[in-house]
Design a protein that fits this description.
The complex is a heterodimer. Chain A is mainly α. Chain A has 9 helices and no strands. Chain A has one domain. Helix content of chain A is about 75%, strand content about 0%. The longest helix of chain A has about 35 residues. Chain A starts with a helix and ends in an 8-residue tail after the last helix. By secondary structure, chain B is mainly α. Chain B is globular and about 60 Å long. The chains are: A mainly alpha, B mainly alpha. At the A-B interface, helix 3, helix 5, helix 7 and helix 9 of A face helix 3, helix 5 and helix 10 of B.
Chain lengths: ~200, ~210
């Protein structure tokens, strides 16, 4: 029962309290770039969730069973980036084959998932947190991806309404989006400290 | 003679492009994580900027040297691998000689690997131009990025704690703005600066 409690708390922690976008600024590029429309943002969120979950688990396995026993920690970053690039390639092929319209609306941002900071950031933070069992890693990775999806969907919904607002000319586009993001983090700051 | 001149202009353009016209942070809006994450004080921001310049110059150099051997579908993977190598060097150097900064920057140093600026410069410049242009382009973009980081960090440090480089600059009665230290300060500062930047560009055009 204790194990399950820890897992649920860990999941809520990375989704709400320690959301990577709001507290660590990871994944800000797609967060600002792809959040123009809700359906694209949702698709992007799902793709990122899948890639994070997969690469989080894979990099942890590689780290735990290959790199540390062989003393090859120095090549850690290179291994991580290869795993992530592979996972993204897989998603790209899948989306291209089954959702051609979604593929078109993603454009350049789909291959750029591999340079999405959330994913590499998660792999590094799992390493820093020193998580030592596979189940926890799986829950945390999925939760992080899910947190990103939540953040980008909220942002997209706000921006769809923002189109109707009367914004000063020089603030149209990115500046007002950033300020909105700031207010959003302020709202999410209310959760600080609820879970470690 | 004319040819030599145009080559010189080309080099100069490569060096100055990153400073304002193609400034990664204010104009192109790429690589937005570090300007938000490491700008609570000027010193870590400067360290971050210098690391990025180092990685950018080295990876531009390496990619420019192997640009004729690259196959299109393996391009991105070669870019990321060479970038990851230089970031590892940089990370180990910081850990050995700047342990305090390394502690503060934490995971954001390895995250330079996925910084869009570096991969973008590799794709847009280094894979098409010769070694010298690529190096100058790396220095220019890196400097533009560092300046942007330092501006944001300067504003945030002055307002959040009344200091700059750890030296007090504000008058004694100054009340620190705690919000500037937090994520919201980063987003709002950058948003206002971007608004200012686009205001300046539209004014210059008209």
């Amino acid at each position: 029962m204790d194990r399950v409690y820890i897992l649920i708390m860990g999941f809520l922690s990375v989704v709400i309290v320690n959301n990577f976008v709001f507290t660590k600024f990871l994944g800000t590029c797609p967060y600002l770039g792809v959040s123009g429309r809700l359906d694209t943002a949702f698709g992007m969120g799902l793709a990122v969730t899948f890639v994070t979950a997969m690469s989080g688990i894979l990099t942890w396995l590689i780290d735990f069973y290959v790199l540390v026993p062989l003393g090859l920690e120095i090549t850690r970053y290179i291994c991580y980036i290869v795993v992530i690039a592979g996972a993204v390639q897989l998603v790209e092929m899948y989306v291209k084959k089954f959702f051609p319209s979604l593929n078109k609306s993603f454009g350049i941002f789909l291959p750029l998932i591999s340079t999405n900071c959330v994913i590499l950031g998660l792999c590094l933070f799992i390493n820093i947190w020193g998580t030592d069992n596979l189940l926890e890693v799986a829950v945390l990775s999925t939760g992080t991806g899910f947190g990103f999806a939540v953040a980008i969907c909220i942002m997209a919904a706000i921006r769809e309404n923002l189109i109707l607002a009367d914004v000063p000319d020089s603030f149209k586009g990115a500046p007002i989006t950033l300020i909105t993001a700031g207010l959003l983090t302020l709202a999410f700051m209310g959760f600080t400290g609820m879970i470690r | 003679m004319a040819d030599e001149n145009s080559v010189k202009i080309n080099y100069l353009a490569a060096l100055t492009a990153g400073l304002w016209r193609e400034n990664p942070t204010f104009r192109l809006l790429i690589g937005m994580c570090p300007p938000l994450a490491v700008t609570t004080a000027v010193k870590p921001a400067l360290t971050m900027g210098l690391s990025v310049i180092f990685v950018l110059v080295c990876s531009n150099l390496a990619i420019s040297l192997m640009r004729n051997l690259l196959k299109p579908h393996l391009r991105i993977i070669m870019f990321t691998l060479s970038i990851a190598t230089f970031v590892t060097i940089c990370d180990l150097y910081l850990r050995a000689f700047q342990p305090v900064m390394s502690e503060i920057l934490g995971a954001y140093v390895p995250l330079i690997i996925v910084n869009c600026i570096i991969i973008f410069r590799a794709e847009a410049c280094a894979s098409k131009n010769n070694v010298w242009v690529s190096i100058l382009d790396g220095i220019g973009s890196g400097t533009g990025f560092t300046i942007a980081l330092c501006i944001i960090a300067g504003i945030r440090e002055i307002l959040a704690s009344g200091t700059i480089f750890g030296i007090a600059v504000m008058p004694r009665g100054f009340v620190p703005w705690a919000a500037m230290q937090m994520p919201v300060g980063a987003f709002v500062t950058l948003g206002l600066l971007l608004g200012l930047a686009s205001l300046l560009t539209t004014k210059r055009k008209s």
